[in-house]
Structure formats: C-alpha cells, structure tokens
Design a protein that fits this description.
Layout lengths: L2 H21 L4 H12 L10 H21 L3 H32 L4 H10 L5 H11 L5 H29 L4 H24 L1 H8 L3 H21 L4 H11 L6 H25 L6 H29 L4 H9 L6 H12 L5 H23 L1 H8 L23 E4 L4 H11 L4 E5 L2 H9 L4 E3 L5 H5 L8 E4 L4 H14 L4 E5 L3 H9 L4 E3 L1 H16 L3 H20 L6
Parallel strand pairs: 1-2, 1-4, 2-3, 4-5, 5-6
Helix pairs in contact: 1-2, 2-12, 3-6, 3-10, 3-11, 3-12, 4-5, 4-7, 4-13, 5-15, 6-7, 6-16, 7-14, 7-15, 10-11, 13-14, 13-16, 15-16
Length: 562
Amino acid sequence: MSLFIELSILIVIATLVAVVMRSLKQPLLIGHIITGIIVGPIVLSFITSTETLHLFSEIGVAILLFIVGLHLHPNTMKKFGKVSLITGVGQVLFTSLAGFFVCLALGFTTLVSIYVGIALAFSSTIIIMKLVADKGDIESLYGKISIGFLLVQDIIAILLLFFIPIIAEGNFTITTVGILLIKMIATFGILYFFSRRWLPKISDFMSHSTELLFLFTIAWGLGVAAIFKVLGFSIESGALIAGITLASLPAREEIAARLTPLRDFFIVMFFILLGAQMEITSIAVLIVPAIILSLLILIGNPLILMSIMGVLGYKKKTSLQTGFTVAQISEFSLILIALGFKLGHVDQTIVSLVTLVGLITIFGSTYLILYSDKIYKFLEKFLSFFEQKKTSEPTFTEKTYDVILFGCNRIGHNFVEELRKSPSSFLVIEHDPSIVKKLTEQNTQVQFGDASDVMMLESLPWVKSEVVISTIPRQEINTLIHQKAREANPDVIFITVANRIQDAMEHYEHGADYVVLPHFLGAHHAAEVVMDLKNNKGAYTKLRNKHIDNLKLHLEAGHEHP
C-alpha cells in the first residue's frame, strides 16, 4: 500500500470517528486517540508508515507550541512569571514525592518509584493548550497562568532528559553542565538580539504579502526549532521560543490565524499516533496500580495546585480551573520512562503502566478542562478551603472594544479621526503594514489582519462590541465580516461601504444597519453645504481652508484619490 493511500484511509477513519464523537457531544481530541487505538496494533494494526506519522506529529507539535508562544507577550510573562514559577516548581516537587511514596506502597523498587514519581509530575503542554484553545480561554487568567507554569515544567523536563543519560553514563561533570549553560545563554542571547533588532523590519517587509508572511513564519518557527534540536535541546522548546520572539509584532494575530488550520491537521496526527502507541501488556496485573496512580493525577494534582494558588491569594474558581489543567501526564512522562527503559532502569511492565496511566488521565482531564465551568458551579460551596478571606488575584480581563473598524485608508481614516474624539474604545483592523506602523506610533489600538481570513475574524473580540464598521471596498469581504460579527453578537450595529446601489441593497437585505455610498453621500453633503451657506463668502473661505487642511492630512497619509 502506498503512503498516499494509507494516509487517505487514515484520515477517512479519523473523520468517521470524529463525526461519531461530535454526534455524542464528546471532545474530538478523544476521537483522535480512539482512531489511533483502532488503527494501531491493538485492533487493526493498519499503520506501517510510522516514520511519516512521527514527522507529521513533530511538525504539529512545533506549530502548536509556536502559536502558543505567539500569545506569550513579554508583558504577560512578566505579570504572571512569579505565580508560574511557584506553581510549576511546587507542583512538580509535591507530585513527584506523592508518586514516589505511592509507588513504594504498591511494592515497586526505589529506583522505579523515583522514575514513576517524576514521570507523573509533568503535564502535557500540547494537550492542555489544545483543549484551552478549543474552549477559547487562551487569553483568560487561568489560561495565561497555565501557559506559564507549563513552560516552567517543560524546562525542568528538558533538563532532566538532558542530565539523566549523562548521570547514567557517569559523565556528569562541571564541564558538561558548563557547556550546556553556555549553549543556552548564547542561543537565547542571539535570538533576543535578532528579535529586537531585525525581526520587526523583516516582519514589516513580509507583511505586504500574506503568502510571504505565512512562508516566513513557518520557516522561522521550524527553523528555530531545528536549531534547538541540533544544539541538544527539544524541538518543543525551540518552537515555543520562536513564537515568543514574534509575540510583540503587530502581525502576531494574523500569523496565528494563518497557521491554525495547518496546526489542526498535523496535531491530529500526533493524537492518532499517541493512541496507536498504546501497547498495553499484562493489563489484568496493571489495572489496579494504574487506577490508583491515575486518581493521584486526576484528583491529587488539582488539589496540590489549588492549595499552592490559594496560598498565593487566588480565587477558588481560578485555582480550580488551573488545577484541572495538570490532571494528566505529559508526553515528556512517556519519553522519560522510555529513556529509563533504554538505560535499563525500568522494565517493559513499567513502560506499559505509565502508558496506561497516560491514556486514563488524558481521557479524564479532557472532560475536566472542557467542563470546568459546570464543575465549578457544582463544587463551589466545597472549595472555600482553597480561598483566603482576602484574595490578591490580579485583575485580568480580556480586551474589549466598543467599536471595531476594518480598514484605515481614505474613508477609514475619517472614522479614526472621529473615534479619537469620542470616549468609545476602538480597535482598527488593517492589512497595510505601513498604516499599522503609523497607527501604532500614534498609540491607536490596531491589529494587523486580512479581513478575508475566517480564522482571523473568529479570533476577534466581538462579543462586547457595540458597533462594527467596514470601509473595505469589497462586497464579499464585507458580507463575511457582517456574518462573523452577527454570529458573535446578534445585537451589534453593522455599518459598511458599497460602491454600487445593488451592493448596498444586498447589504440591507442581509441586515446591515447602514451602508455608506461615498459618491452619493458626497454629492448629498455638497448640496447641503451650498443650500446652507448660499452666498456667504466668509463662510466659504472658512470651509475652504478647513477642507484644504483635511486634504493635506489625506495626502500625508498617502491617499492619492478619494
């Protein structure tokens, strides 16, 4: 069977399973893992091109973490760095100790207990970020904290994966540690300098073409991830850092929107492969310890994190939602146990045990994260123990705008000038990088984006916006903007532009509140001016001078014609 046919059948099976999961109102992520189990050695043993699936999985993981990095603006990292460090390190320490003693109680040796205890301490960045993103909570308080402490955990895991082989081989010396630190400092230093000095200029140039911008971001994300791999670090850490270096650019939302469909395809392969690798042996012997360890993760980990966050002064809902994000083990856990097996420290039974725990906790945590709001309502009265009388939770609200304006060229320019005079908050969506740069310099809230991109439109903060204005002179794009705005907020006032009467009538048929026809509106305004001023020469002189000043502003903005 050719690779093309194999992948085609695999996608068809994944789609059918996803349809069933959707019909049952279950998370699609679970469906992808079930697909892996079906096509894997446990059932059909269908997959033969494992190397290709591994490659697709690595690409999916890299793109996912690259997009996560795009949301980690330096200001956000600074704001949540303390709680992320404390929760990340604290949860790893407490879970490792709890797992170690539980394993000893189950009759495992000290070395095996150390391995399993540490393996249970890490949560999956990939799975958590996919679930939180699907829920739309990436920009929430608990979402930001989760990203932070997962980054801390990943750094700890990467250091462990680096040092364990060195320790096992007896090569753990000051020299090896020094070389590692030098490589880390040099890599981060070069990336920081490049991102501050050259990336903004490169991004401005690339942003003139959406295709070029898309290609550049793929090259940057995968390229930095590859460099990290060559230097002995993980692909995951490289992709995440690559995203962080672009997080301050105006085009970050456009980049994330463009990459999302690509991420979704490749990350499906990751979860299918994860399910396919679930080779559970001696299940009758392993089921009891697997359930006990899974309960430690599903219940113990959230309790540990809730306790830490309660001491730090966070409210019980934030603590609960953040706690649920650590209720599964990580891909690093499986890699760590596989490394222990390779070094002869654990046997295949322990590998199968941790794999089974991974399957159970991934299933369980998926529901905990996706339905955390409903679970909180049920448990709210029992959670007061985890909240101090005086909470010190930082105020964190998602940015919302009274007005969203599409396009700031010619007609849009006038809207911006008027909006600046009003008390209303507004966001400008603009696709010309030079205009974006100018608006940014003027302290105007602006986001680089292509209004024809559905993913970009769906990522906008529509819900609390009162008015949406589009000055884009394209009928089909304005129709799409109108559709997405109404889906998010049925009561929003939608104003758009049309060049033909027929286009305006179609907009009105679709429910637009007002359509601007520049030529007719201009003629109507001119007629009103003449009738109002009549033969008042002095009034015309004032109007003339005001008009000349306004035209000069348009010329400075590069508007060659009305």
